[in-house]
Write a structure and sequence with these properties.
The structure holds two protein chains of two kinds.
Chain A (H helix, E strand, L loop, with lengths): L8 H26 L3 E3 L3 E6 L13 E11 L3 E8 H11 L14 H26 L3 E3 L3 E6 H9 L6 E11 L2 E11 L1 H11 L5
Antiparallel strand pairs in A: 1-7, 2-7, 3-4, 3-5, 3-6, 4-8, 7-8
Helix pairs in contact in A: 1-3
Chain B lengths: L4 E4 L5 E5 L3 E8 L3 E7 L4 E7 L18 H14 L7 E7 L16 H14 L4 E6 L5 E6 L5 E5 L3 E4 L1
Parallel strand pairs in B: 1-3, 6-7
Antiparallel strand pairs in B: 2-5, 3-8, 4-5, 4-6, 8-9, 9-10
Helix pairs in contact in B: 1-2
The chains are: A alpha+beta, B alpha+beta.
């Protein structure tokens, strides 16, 4: 049976609120990284069916920049931060405004990958710390991995433990000055962890 | 030359096709493996996009045979035989089984690419199907197309462009 079917508006509302608080933390951390004011928009939180996850970012063949973190702790799962290659390039440019951008459309230098991984850490970490505060449980993300590749090939990773299910999609975008940089964050709790999240949040699934 | 018809094979799906001018396509193979089977005399092609090595741990009910290497191979062979393929003539090509993120710990169940490839080889050996070519492993995704007229497997990746097996 599909676990997510038991999730109602109450549960989603709480996840949105957690997302808001996480976005607040993320904005503060991003401002420090970029050394200028950054505004995070209120994230959209919704459930996306298994086979449509890749569609959210342009289809399974669309080339995306992805940061992957595995979450361990009382609740375990996979987390992805996906953005277009162009958005990733813009982000790198705002982190290193004086450096010439690396050549090649799909190439990222080690230092750029490191910076993008740090952004992934900040965005995912902000949301996770907000979630763990609400659950009063520990969540520890692994060192982030980075890849530029087809969305389908990247996302299949997080879907492996699943039978047909839905993922929690948290759409975040931030405004860095006038530039808007959009990213998609997917949280895929492991099947065993699913009910535990809502139990720990005090809104058990029906 | 007639226009080729593209037959889409999704994640955890399998399809067989016969005759000229069909391209069985599956996109975005990461750690998943594409099993391409072909009988060049009957011109019958089959393609499976498997995600996991073994159905032993399957929780889905009813079981999706196309999702697991051990169950997808016999199912795909059966479908191909229904439309004219003959067992001793079928040969296999494999693509996929990558390790997309090097950050994933060695022990993790997410290091699934190589296990998928191994399970496909074991499964093909069980039915005495020779593997004529493979493009597996690495750390990048692949999109593949199997041509029903020729048995050629076209492989595309973001970093390395196109090649044929």
């Amino acid at each position: 049976m599909n676990e997510w079917e038991r999730i109602g508006e109450n549960q989603l509302d709480l996840l949105r609120e957690i997302g808001n608080i996480g976005a607040g933390h993320a904005a503060t951390a991003m401002s420090k990284l970029l050394n200028k004011p950054v505004n995070m928009e209120v994230p959209q939180v919704r459930l996306v069916p298994f086979d449509q996850i890749a569609e959210q970012v342009g289809g399974p063949e669309a080339v995306v920049a992805a940061i992957f973190l595995r979450i361990e702790g009382q609740v375990s799962g996979n987390m992805f931060l996906l953005m277009s290659v162009q958005a990733a390039k813009e982000l790198v440019k705002s982190i290193f405004p004086l450096e010439p951008s690396s050549s090649g459309d799909l190439y990222f230098s080690d230092i750029e990958i490191s910076a993008l991984s740090e952004v992934g850490n900040i965005l995912a970490g902000s949301y996770l710390s907000s979630l763990s505060d609400f659950m009063q449980a520990s969540l520890s993300p692994t060192v982030p991995g980075f890849a530029v590749d087809m969305a389908g090939a990247i996302l299949a990773y997080g879907l492996i433990p699943f039978d047909e299910t839905d993922a929690l999609l948290i759409e975040t975008s931030f405004l860095d000055g006038m530039e808007r940089i959009e990213s998609h964050m997917f949280l895929l709790p492991d099947p065993d962890s699913f009910a535990r999240i809502f139990t720990l949040l005090g809104v058990p699934a029906q | 030359m007639t226009e080729k018809v593209i037959v889409k094979v999704g994640m955890a799906e399998l399809k067989a096709a016969s005759g000229e001018g069909q391209l069985l396509r599956t996109v975005g193979l990461g750690s998943c493996v594409g099993i391409a089977l072909y009988d060049r005399f009957a011109k019958v092609a089959g393609l499976a996009h498997i995600m996991l090595p073994s159905s032993d741990i399957a929780r889905d009910n009813p079981l999706n045979k196309a999702k697991y290497a051990d169950t997808a191979i016999p199912e795909l062979l059966a479908r191909m035989q229904e439309i004219g393929a003959v067992m001793p003539r079928i040969v296999a090509k494999l693509a996929g089984g990558a390790q997309m993120f090097s950050s994933v710990p060695e022990s993790s169940t997410l290091r699934i690419g190589q296990r998928n490839v191994d399970a496909c080889k074991a499964g093909l050996l069980r039915y005495n199907i020779p593997i004529s070519a493979e493009d597996t492993g690495g750390n990048y995704g692949r999109t593949i197309e199997l041509d029903s007229s020729t048995g050629i497997l076209f492989i595309r990746s973001v970093q390395f462009g196109a090649k044929e097996l």
